Amino acid sequence: MKKNQKVVGFAQLGDPVLRLHAETVEDINSLKISTIINTMRSELSNSNGVGLAAPQIFESVCIVIIASRPSRRYPLAPEMEAVVMINPSFKVISNDIKTDWEGCLSVPGIRALVPRYTKIDISYLDEQGKKKKLIAEDFVARIFQHEYDHLNGLVYLDRVEDNKDIISESEFQKMMEGN
Length: 179
Ligand SMILES: [Zn+2]
Hints:
By secondary structure, this protein is an alpha+beta fold. It is built from three helices and six strands.
């Protein structure tokens, strides 16, 4: 069976693919790239995630999807159609940094407080190869920076400032219910 035909879960912390620098996409119209994007879309919609990076489905190429939706933690998060971003980059608009909870489909069972820029200017190519820009703030900016890190071989735990800011998923859920 070809690797692209079936994804057996997400790459988990410790898998070397999560530590690679992902390759720039050269041929956006190739079957390989459209297959990766389709797989990412379906895997993300089958999960409870709000974003996904290609290395998480074992493909070390520069593609991310962000798909914000409101949650108990982020009731004001915008509900957005999943946006596919190829070869993304970003500039910091505001040096304002906020710390908030993150989780990751590649790091199950854990949540941690992570500092992120609150306002960024994202550039990327869409699935047709068109140059696009998106000014992202707060939760959407956070999702993007988390996914972008995956393209550089980083996971969110690498950004945690104090190990005491790492907690279990079950304790995180208890804390959310207490809100
Ligand atoms: Zn992640």
